[in-house]
Amino acid sequence: MKLSILVNEGPYQHQAADTAIQFTKAAVARGHEIFRVFFYHDGVNNGTRFAVPPQDDRNITAQWTALAEEHNLDLVLCIAAAQRRGILDENEAKRQGKDGNNIAPGFRISGLGQLIEAGIQSDRLVIFGD
Amino acid sequence: MAEPWEDEPEGPVRKFMYVNRRAPYGTIYALESLEVVLIAAAFEQDVTLVFMDDGVFQIKKGQSTEAIGVKNFSPTYRALEGYDVEKLYVSRESLESRGLTTDDLVVPVQVLDKDQLAALMEEQEVILSF
Known about the structure:
Chain A is built from five helices and five strands. By secondary structure, chain A is of the alpha/beta class. In chain B, strands 4-3-2-1-5 form a five-stranded parallel β-sheet. Classes of the chains: A alpha/beta, B alpha/beta.
C-alpha cells in the first residue's frame, strides 16, 4: 500500500512523534511504500539538527535522518509552520536574513501543497497527533 | 497568466474533509487548519469542512482578540466561499450544548446531528482533523 504520514506534534513533548516514526519503520519493514512524511504544527520541530536530547534518551531526529537515508524517504517540513517556529534551511535563512540554519539531514522544507498532494496520491494518509 | 496552482501536480479529485474540533485561540491548531484549507482550495479537490466540539467557536460572530494580542482570523472563514469551499457543516450537539444557533455564526452552515456527520465521514477519502 502507498502511505503518507502526517506528524502534527513535536518530539519529546508528545508521544505522537515517537509513534509516527515507529509506525513508519514498521510500515517500511512490511513492504509498504512511503510516498511522503509531512511535518506540520509543532511537528516541524522533529526536523531540527540543533536538538540535543540526553545521551541515554532516544534521538528522534537522528532516527528520521537514518530512516530517510536507508529507505530514501521524502521528509517534508511545512514552510509556514517552520518559519513560525524557527526551523530554517540554507535558502530560507538567506532569504529571511538569518545568521544560520538548523534543518537536519534528510529533511526538506516545502509548502502545504505537498501535504495535499500526499493526500491525493496515497492510498492512506495516516495522521499522528491529538 | 500563470496562476501559482497551475504548477501543482495533476491527480484525481478526492473527497477531503477537514474536521475542526478546537477553540480558535489557546492553541494554533485552528489557524493552521485554516491555512491548510486555503492552500488546498487551489488543488480543486472535493472539500468539506466540519466544525464540532469547541471548533464551533472558530466561526462565532463578534470575536474580539485585542486583549489577548492575537490576530482575529475569523473574517477569513467568510472568504472560503470565494475559494469554492462551500460545504460547511456544524455538529448540532456541539452547537446546542454551547448555547449557540446558526445566527451566531459568521458563515452559512448546514447543521447535522452526530449520525449524519458519521455518515458524511464515511464517504470521505482523506480526513484531516485539527
